[in-house]
Structures are given as structure tokens and as C-alpha cells.
Predict the 3D structure of the following.
Amino acid sequence: MLRETVLLAFREIRRNVLRSSLTILGIVIGVAAVITMVTLGGGATAQVASDIAKLGTNLLQVRPGQARRGHSGTRSTGDMFKEDDAEAIAREISGLAAVAPTASQTTQAIFGNKNWSTAATGSTNSYLRVRDWPLENGRQFTSGELRAGKAVCILGATVRKELFGGQNPIGATIRLGKLSCQVIGVLESKGQSSFGTDRDDFVLIPLRTLHRRITGNTDVSRIYVSAQDGVSTKKVEQDVERLMRERRHIASGKEDDFHVRDMQELVSTMTGTTRVLTGLLGAVAAVSLLVGGIGIMNIMLVSVTERTREIGIRLAVGALERDVLMQFLVEAVVLSSFGGLIGIVLGVAAAAVGARLLAVPFIFDPGIVVIAFVFSAAVGVIFGYFPARQAGQMDPIEALRHE
Amino acid sequence: MNTTPSEQISKSPLIELKGVAKVYGKGRAAMHALRGIDLRIDHGEFVAVMGPSGSGKSTCMNILGCLDTPSAGAYLFDGVDAGELSRDQRALLRRNYLGFVFQGFNLLNRTSALENVELPLIYRGTPTGERRACALRALEAVGLKGWETHTPGELSGGQQQRVAIARAIVTNPKVLLADEPTGNLDSACSREIMEVLAAFNSERGITIALVTHDADMAAYAKRIIRFLDGIIDSEEQNGGTP
Ligand SMILES: Nc1ncnc2c1ncn2[C@@H]1O[C@H](COP(=O)(O)OP(=O)(O)O)[C@@H](O)[C@H]1O
Ligand SMILES: [Mg+2]
């Protein structure tokens, strides 16, 4: 009996191909939209998470100013750090792998007739260690260069490309503003961050060189602290906070005028944001699924009216109310699930293309495919039920008399 | 004459109407289609119902066919009070014991003759192979061998009505109810249809109640009942040969 009902549904659908296609269009678009949005959103979330993980999850950033609530920026209301703040952290807190004080200044990098506006970042070799950033070429700073504030520099991949093109920059002398500076190394490329900034666009020089020859002060705007493997970043964070409060003479009860940021925290904030966005887009797409369901209901109502006589005949030869109800319900479910299947295929294809265009990873999630399919079938049941019940409850005599 | 086991045991008529009335609408607008019908039809009978248009013949047939229920009075089908049955139980009665033939054929369009005849068997849950075999036999019995794949649109009126008859008898019903089955057909076709019906009555013992306006068609029946304004005006026995 069920077999006959399903066959009959397929036959009815085939009889009116154009109408059936238009009927399921809403479901197709809805399912495709949900799959595309959720898949792309999932890819973006994974991308953000892996980008931040590349920074090292046992990495802490200490910055002056208070943290803005729920956001990654800081308010610059605190005094800048000095180099000895970083030294104190390295000296007094246990379980650390490296501490890198940094400061930065926008400058013109000039080589020959090439000119490139970039950031001159002053730090130590620890910077390369905390950021886990290998050299592609050349060498790190020597301790002598660091102590004396020598005019040497390591180029980010972008700066190297802009100034030197394909040439080997090692040993060449470039100018950073007024400072003539010898290139001793080139960093590997890290590419774009998920926030859209070019991480390779800077020149690394010894912190003292930056202080003495470029900024003219001794400010440290950021201290990177990386914990040893197996050491809790939470504990390190607390230790750093306690030490800095002490060094900055903050009375108990007063708020910090600096902020220690945990990368793990950043991961969850950022992925949380993209997840909420994905959810919203998915919800918008789901609304179109509902609209598709209403389309199915509309056409099924028309179909029931058109086939009143047929319903009368079926009832007269002994069909029960539920036989007729099932016939129309199955038809609605077959229609909507078929729309769901097409929508899944289109949605996965669109997500694959979209992922390539947006340069996010394409992560195929079988879960969402199953959910989308079940959902589209459910739409058929929910929106097909009312017309199907109407069909089943028809009065046989009236139905037979219907023209 | 053919007898069935229930007749031998109960001696009750197959169909019994006791004071059946049917009122459409309410109050001043009430339309009294039937005003107290008492009628007995025994197993194996062939009854013709005649009467002017609007006299309540179709209303009565619908009640006999369990498509409709009386407003008053009782309808006993093989001893069972059909008025007590639920909608689904009446559908089961139609499915298992009743066959219908209508003036307008009421076949499914765009569906082959064979599948039209198979329809009642689908609801009975008959397996596909057996269903097909039964339907082929029924079509052969009404003289439509070779027309199985034709849709109603490709058949003449007489052939369509034969398909409808095949559909009605494919389940071996106890009663075949025909409401002006020849109303849309010319007299030659009508005779052929009546021959087919008379054959089912005499050969298979299927009880037949048939509405007609045509005395020539009524002559095939063994009893003629005349309706007038919702009551039975007269009854007469007939030779059963036109
Ligand atoms: N569904 C209905 N609603 C109201 N009146 C009806 C309905 N069906 C039949 N009637 C009325 O009942 C009377 C008997 O109708 P019917 O049984 O069809 O007569 P016949 O078949 O003898 O021509 C007619 O006057 C008809 O108008
Ligand atoms: Mg009539």
C-alpha cells in the first residue's frame, strides 16, 4: 500500500513537471542557502581559530590601557611600559619560555628608487620565538647588536618583495626614515590574518635601535609573554597581573591600567563572533525554507481542489480518510524532500565555490546535510498535512458531483 | 437462484430500509428528498428503480451505497445497522461489499483502463500480481480484452461504462449499485451494458439495484420500484426479459 502511494506520488509529480519544479523552488533555494551559509560560516570560524592558534595558544600579550569589554581593542589610558618591565617579568615569573618587549613606529623603507611605507618594530630575538616565526634567510640579531642598538634589520616578506623584488636583500643597506640599516635576515611569509591585515608588512630592528634612532623615547607598547609547554596560561596571566600592579603602584580596589590578553580568550571571542554570524545567516536562510513550505501548502491546496473528483472516486471505491490523507501527504513530502536533495547538491557546490572565492577552507559537514534533509522532509509533512487532511475529510457525494 | 450462506442462516434480506427519510437543509429551506422509504432487497435480486427527476432515486442509492446516511429511519445491510457505523466503517463496507456505477462513469482520467479497474483492489491491499490478474479478468468479462492500456479519453462512452462496471465487480461485491448507468449512452450501447449487468446478476448472483428512466432498460430487472416525491409509489414484478 505504501509502495503504491509513493509510486502514485511520483506519477502525479511527473505529470506536472513545470508546476512541481516551481513548487519545490522555494525549498531548493532555502536548503541551498542554509547549507551554503553554514558551510562557509564553519569554514570562516575554523580559519579564524587556526589563525589565532598560529600565534601560539600559550601566548599572552600585555598592553597598557584597560581592555574594552567584549572587544579586542584597548583604551590607551595607561602609561607605556619600559624595557625593565619586560625584564622584571622574565626574572620574577616562573614557567616562561620567552618574553619579548616591542614598540612600533610607522616609517618609510627606502631602497634605491623603491619606497614603501611600513612599520618599524623594535624587539629582541624573543619576538621571533614567541610568534614562532622562522627566518627564511639570513640570521637573527647578535647579543652585541641588541645591546648596542646597531643599525641592522630583518625584513618581513612583504617589505622584501616591495623593495627587492626577486633579488637577494641580505647584506644590502636600506633606509628606515633617516636611519641607514643593514639587512641581515628575511622572515617567512605568514600571509593575511583573518582580520584582513598583512602580517608580513613590517621591519624588525633591535628595540634599542628603535628607541635611540627612530622614536627618541624608551616606551614599550606591548610585551609578549609565552609560557612553557604544560604551564597554565591562566596562572602566568595572574602572576603577570600581580607583578605589573605592584610595579605600576596600583592600589588594591583600583582597576588595572593595563591588560593581559590570553590568546585562548581571543580564539573563543573571535570564533564566537563568527559563529553568531553564521547562526544569523543560517536563520535568515531557514526563513526561506518556511516560505518554501508555504509554497508547497499553496500548491497542494490547489491540487486537492483540482482533484476533488478523483478524491470522490477513491472514497467511493473504499479508500479510508487516512488512505487519501496519506496519498497527499506523501506527495507533499516527496516534493519537499526532492527539493531538499537538489538544494543540498546546489548548496554544497555553492559553498565549495564560495570557499574558494573567499579563501576560507571548505569544510563539508555531513551533519548539516542530514539536518537540512530532515528539515525539508519535515516542511513537507507540516505544510502538506492541512491540504491532505482536507482531501481525506471530503464528503464523497459532494466530491463526485464536483466539476 | 443463487444463495449465500448468510441467507441460509438468517433468512434476513440483504438490504432493508425501514422508514428512511432524508432532509437536506434546515427550517423553511428544508428539502425532504426522502419521506419514509420501506424497502427490502433480497440476495441475488435485480431491482430497477424508476421515477421522475427529483423524486429521490439518487438520494436513496447513495444511502444504499453507504455514501450518505439517512436523517431518520434505519438501513440494515445484511443485518448490520449502517446508521451506527463510523465514517471509516462505512468506507470498509463500500470497499468489501459494494460496487458503484455512475451515470458520468467517474473514471480516473489519464489513467489506463487496467489501473482504473485495479483501484479498489489497491485499497484492499491485494498483492500486485493477483491484482493485475483480477483486473484483466474483469475487463475480459465486460468485453474489453485488448483495451487495457487505453485511457478513458481514448474510449467510447459505452467502453468507459464497461470499465466502470469492471471496476465495480472486480472485488466480487455483494451489491452493485448503478445510478442511471445508461443515461449518457445511445440505445445500442445501453442494451450492451444491460446485457453485461444482467449476466453478472444471473451468473455470479450479484445483487443489482439500478436507477433508470428508460422502460426498455428497466425491463431487464426482475422487480421495478417507482419513486414519486420521496416515497415509493408502486412496485411490480417483472419477467426479467426485455
Ligand atoms: N445535497 C443536496 N442538497 C440539497 N438538496 C438536494 C441535495 N441532493 C439532492 N437534493 C434534492 O433532493 C431531491 C431528490 O434528489 P435526487 O435524489 O437527486 O433525485 P433523482 O435522482 O430522483 O432525480 C431533489 O429535489 C434535489 O434537489
Ligand atoms: Mg438522480
In short: Residues 263-306 of chain A form the longest helix (44 residues).
